[in-house]
Amino acid sequence: MAYFLRFIYKNLDWNRTRFSSWLKEDELPACIIKDLRADDNALSLWEISDDKSNLLDVIAAFASESRNDIKNDWNFALLSSKYLDEVSFAPSEMPAKTAYTSMNHYHRSVPNLSINKVVYFAYLLSRHGKFDTKSWKEVEARLTEVNSRGQLNIKRIKSSKLKQRLEYA
Description:
The protein is α+β, with helices and mostly antiparallel strands. The protein has five helices and six strands; from the N terminus they run ββαβαββαβαα.
């Protein structure tokens, strides 16, 4: 069964134990909503294969799209596709426009979301998501490798510093 990846910007905020003194059993801290920004009432997800063999490549594709010179680790949550099927979230194909063009077809969009559905998605992630991190060194190494094989469109990289590092690697 496939997974869907959602990038998480502050992994610590999803840890309910930090807020245990005042949160009730079924509640989530409000600060996690910033991780689920819905552009045009849609959530951006990336499809990850059953064996997770495309995980690092998908993260590298996303990193190649960043405008900032990000050198921090990449936090993310994986959610089994069965949870989206159960609640009729319908991820639709929406290819990304990253520099790592062969990974763009893994991008998905979940459109037409109300605030209730976004909150429910947060609930699903908090209960069933697997939170993890990939180090910037791993991601940059993959980007360097992909670039050396000619699979990276350097012109599409938005971070001038990353572009410069890859051009001279």
